[in-house]
Task: inverse folding
């Protein structure tokens, strides 16, 4: 199944960003891919979300009393000497500490003394935490994590004159992130208390969801999947090294860093790594990231373990960023449509929307060595009976005025969509599903680090394979196929020049029949979903786990009765419940047929490709040994749960002797994986005909091309 004649096409250089043809412009009413206005999450009338998501209280600038101005004996936490204590003071310390590896203050003696808040002769996490404590006290914060006497020595500063040297505060490009002692953006508008889980994996992934949803430049599936993978690989590797198991890390590290285990806080390491990666990827939202990091730091103990963890995580984060610096994700590729029958065309209902991702298939993968090894055979020939059956199904089921599509199917189509402005991408919902299942199943912090990294990498690689296939096949979308159906050479298809799809949701009150602007085969939704749910099957060693998840797409409809009525829905809530991973995977893929934007073979093959990638990626990740056994998960000290475990799930994997394998996982991704077929629950509303599926499989087996 997974073979390709590599001479059939040449793919251009990769592009993560929008690739416009000359003269192409996008209506302001549709800004899904370019973010021309504020996201839905940023609007004043923000809907009430039922999912647990972070709300970060920003550490506001505090103008201190006149008696304290320029007086470091009373205000040693003002390390940048801007006459006020802010989160930037903590970040100044952390940046200097990372550069000096927490050694004795050197170089700029004055700045070293200013950042040494507790005057113990060194820059450490204790100094940063003292700044956070001062902020908590000034704001009436919940608690003081340490006394001003923490560390050795007293807090007297030897110099009090202003220096104007702010070089220790670094932005992602080395720029000074503050001006005149204030932060940029609308930081002071937030007034809600931060909600942290105490698990760095969950907390930073929740922040990632918000950053992605509010990004004005990168609301596309390729960039989002890459960013999510970078974030979670950095967290995973930090936890592995902090746990003394650098051999299971995804990337290789300098021996001095790889051997820096011992008394190291894995949580602090994970947070520091996450901060570094997200600061690099979402520098346009640096204020939000800085504020959140300050709130996280305030929850950590002031001890050498935290200090060591912060240093370790920063180094890991920098390594992950460097490893992906030249992965092709910033290349720009132009795309030109052709007039050939069956080829990808612009959306006839939204002709000015530009193409996205013609070069994303050339972006470097994370775990699999060759995207071409996972690309499927070509779709059914336009003149075949199989193509006609799929054509007629989506024409009837996916039409805006369909009398066949049920209300439940319409709800399912919208539930999974995440095409609307301000919702991020489908990766946002998939991340919510990961958290829902992880919390429900009682995962440890170390298990979450492995699960999220494994799933993120599988989805990122699935995105590359999907876009390799899309722009290799260049098959037209259903709306074009049906409007030009009289010219496809198939006697079993009848064209309809006025046909309109139900379409992916947009940000307005009307149903506009929008189709995402990239080729139809294979479905990105289905491929990402296959990778996600395939990973969950691999990790837990079973398909039979039920869960309930909330969709922000449906939350929007709950708040908009007119839009809900336009869809013919009467919703009670924004949730859907699934009895198994395969049921959710099937509905996710099938949902694109209900919207009229994919054929069923786009979905079915996409699921298979995603699952195959999930199986290949599973060998790359292992669960690190917990820092302690107080969590009651039953992992014995010194043991390691690995993925190289035969029939055992990754989470609890042991070899045949009952001992956990400590050997590094061999990474042989050159072998083409075997096609996997998941069980499909009859209750999953797919209504797939067994003969149809068999006929489509036969087409692939015979390698009949368009």
Result:
């Amino acid at each position: 199944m997974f073979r390709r004649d590599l001479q059939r096409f040449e793919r251009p250089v990769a592009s993560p960003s929008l690739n416009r043809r000359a003269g192409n412009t996008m209506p302001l009413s549709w800004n899904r891919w370019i973010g021309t206005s504020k996201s839905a999450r940023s609007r004043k009338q923000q809907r009430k979300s039922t999912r647990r998501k972070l709300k970060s209280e920003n550490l506001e600038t505090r103008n201190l009393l006149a008696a304290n101005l320029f007086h470091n004996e009373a205000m040693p936490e003002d390390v940048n000497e801007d006459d006020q204590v802010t989160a930037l003071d903590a970040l100044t310390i952390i940046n200097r500490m990372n550069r000096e590896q927490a050694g004795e203050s050197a170089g700029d003696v004055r700045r070293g003394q200013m950042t040494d808040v507790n005057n113990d002769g060194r820059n450490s996490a204790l100094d940063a935490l003292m700044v956070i404590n001062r902020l908590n006290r000034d704001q009436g914060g919940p608690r003081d994590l340490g006394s001003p006497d923490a560390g050795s020595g007293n807090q007297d500063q030897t110099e009090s004159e202003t220096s104007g040297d702010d070089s220790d505060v670094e932005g992602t490009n080395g720029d000074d992130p503050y001006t005149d002692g204030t932060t940029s953006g609308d930081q002071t508008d937030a007034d809600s208390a931060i909600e942290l889980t105490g698990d760095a994996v969950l907390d930073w992934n929740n922040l990632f969801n918000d950053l992605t949803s509010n990004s004005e430049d990168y609301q596309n599936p390729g960039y989002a999947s890459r960013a999510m993978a970078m974030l979670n690989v950095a967290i995973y590797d930090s936890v592995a090294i902090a746990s003394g198991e650098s051999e299971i890390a995804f990337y290789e590290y300098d021996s001095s860093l790889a051997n820096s285990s011992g008394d190291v806080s894995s949580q602090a390491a994970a947070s520091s790594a996450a901060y570094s990666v997200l600061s690099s990827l979402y520098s346009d939202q640096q204020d939000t990231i800085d504020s959140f990091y300050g709130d996280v730091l305030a929850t950590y103990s002031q001890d050498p373990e935290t200090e060591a963890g912060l240093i370790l995580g920063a180094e890991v984060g920098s390594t992950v960023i460097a490893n992906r610096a030249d992965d092709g994700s910033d290349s720009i590729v132009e795309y030109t449509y052709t007039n050939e029958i069956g080829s990808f065309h612009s959306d006839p209902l939204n002709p000015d929307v530009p193409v996205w991702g013609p070069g994303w298939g050339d972006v470097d993968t994370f775990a699999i060595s060759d995207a071409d090894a996972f690309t499927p055979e070509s779709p059914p020939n336009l003149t075949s009976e199989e193509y006609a059956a799929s054509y007629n199904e989506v024409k009837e089921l996916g039409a805006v005025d369909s009398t066949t599509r049920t209300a439940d199917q319409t709800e399912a189509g919208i539930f999974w969509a995440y095409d609307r402005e301000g919702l991020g991408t489908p990766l946002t919902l998939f991340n919510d599903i990961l958290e829902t299942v992880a919390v429900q199943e009682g995962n440890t912090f170390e298990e979450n680090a492995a699960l999220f990294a494994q799933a993120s990498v599988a989805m990122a690689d699935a995105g590359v394979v999907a876009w390799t296939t899309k722009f290799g096949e260049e098959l037209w979308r259903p709306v074009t196929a049906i409007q030009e159906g009289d010219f496809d050479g198939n006697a079993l298809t009848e064209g309809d020049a006025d046909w309109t799809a139900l379409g992916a949701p947009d940000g307005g009150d009307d149903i506009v029949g929008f189709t995402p602007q990239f080729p139809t085969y294979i479905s990105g939704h289905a491929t990402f979903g296959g990778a996600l749910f395939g990973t969950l099957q691999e990790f837990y060693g079973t398909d039979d786990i039920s869960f309930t998840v909330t969709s922000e797409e449906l939350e929007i409809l709950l708040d908009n009765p007119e839009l809900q009525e336009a869809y013919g829905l009467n919703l009670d809530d924004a949730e859907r419940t699934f009895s198994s991973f395969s049921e959710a995977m099937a509905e996710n893929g099938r949902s694109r047929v209900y919207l009229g934007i994919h054929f069923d073979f786009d979905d079915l093959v996409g699921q298979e490709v995603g699952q195959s990638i999930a199986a290949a990626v599973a060998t790359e990740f292992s669960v690190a040994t917990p820092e302690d056994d107080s969590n009651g998960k039953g992992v014995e000290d010194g043991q390691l749960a690995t993925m190289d475990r035969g029939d055992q799930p990754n989470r609890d994997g042991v070899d045949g002797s009952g001992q956990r394998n400590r050997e590094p996982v061999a990474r042989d991704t050159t072998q083409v994986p075997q096609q996997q077929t998941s069980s499909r629950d009859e209750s999953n509303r797919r209504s797939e005909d067994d003969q149809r599926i068999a006929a489509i499989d036969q087409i692939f087996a015979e390698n009949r091309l368009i």
